[in-house]
Amino acid sequence: MPWKKSEPMDQRREFALKALGTLNFRALCQEYGISAKTGYKWRERFLRQGLEGMEEDSRRPRSSPKQLSEGQVCEMVKLKLVHRHWGPRKIRTLYHRRHGQAPSESSFKRVLEQVGLTQPRRVREGPLEGGRLSSGRRGQAPNEVWTVDFKGWWRLGETRRCEPLTVRDEFSRYVLELRAMDNARSQTVREAFERVFERHGLPEAIRSDNGAPFASVQALHGLSRLSAWWMALGIDLERGRPAHPQDNGGHERLHRDIAQELEILGQGATPEALELWREEFNRERPHEALGMRCPAELYRDSNRPYRAAEVQLSYPGMATRLVDKNGKLSWKDKKVFLTGSLAGWQVGLQRSEKGQLEIWFGRLLLGHLDPQELDFLRSQEAS
What we know:
This protein has 4 domains: 8-54; 72-114; 145-272, Nucleotidyltransferase, domain 5 (2-Layer Sandwich), CATH 3.30.420.10; 312-378, no CATH class. Helix content is 31%, strand content 17%. It contains 10 helices and 14 strands. The chain has helices at 8-19, 25-31, 36-49, 70-82, 88-99, 105-114, 186-200, 225-232, 249-261, 271-283; strands at residues 145-150, 154-156, 160-162, 164-169, 175-180, 205-208, 236-239, 319-322, 328-331, 334-337, 346-351, 357-361, 364-369, 376-378. Strands 5-4-1-6-7 form a 5-stranded mixed β-sheet. Strands 8-11-12-13-14 form a 5-stranded antiparallel β-sheet, with no helix packed on it. It has a two-stranded antiparallel sheet with strand order 2-3. Helix 1 (8-19) crosses helix 3, helix 4 crosses helix 5 (88-99) and helix 5 (88-99) packs across helix 6 (105-114). It is elongated and about 125 Å long.
């Protein structure tokens, strides 16, 4: 039989002592269940080293040509201390950028574990339900889809609150805006978007949740004053399903990073700190989904420039009416209510095959108007 797992050293000592006086060495090897080659190895080791030689040698090499230098270890630890929430793979990528080469990822994991600077990654127990978007659209190039939301507020000092507006390009992960807002009113957020559009141009679509100021659940097509302006600029609207934040999962992950790395600064979350974090996120942080590239390596400004003076809607072949400040249009000296979100915008009217008047806002059919009774009926899509 071979060496017993519970006491191999005792068996080796016993074998070695018997081997010195046996006349039938091969029979002794068969008795202990080992080959003659193994038997000769242990007998020779006993003759050279005595009983201590019966210990199993460590298979770890006494030296390694790739052993890390003190300078390498210090640099690895220094980068991790600056970027505490980055994993070993991101730290290694940053190391490689700065030095042109880097130790293996396993070396980074080992070093950072030894100094207590890593935490085990939490594993989800099961897949998230309802992870699909209602539209199913995903950005396949820069500026195809932007995502927008407000990061949940945190306190600055005893009286002030910080509730940043975050705007992100879905394809490249590039953070276009990270700004602490005085309030979340439509006009305030519109001014912030005007600055973003002036810097980067217009996207094809913007995805948001169903809350103010991005949407109004009671209005036609869920239009708010802000999203009506986006529509007038030729931007498609996309919204996640109510109570399904995973529909905008990438943006939720961005907010988690902000919470971990910025919110803990408390009073230090100044406009300068927010902008510094945004620049680091865009130009230094590698992303696994981007092949360990930075967002700035993929993002390009839109080829659709923003020109505020040209924001107007035209309706060729249709009658037009201006929606007043109360959300009403005039038809045959009577007022018909549509929605307050469209106050100040022109809508188009054209007669349908059934004799009703279709009312359009840009590419959106709002509903139908009975020209006799002047009753407005929402379209099914607008409900």
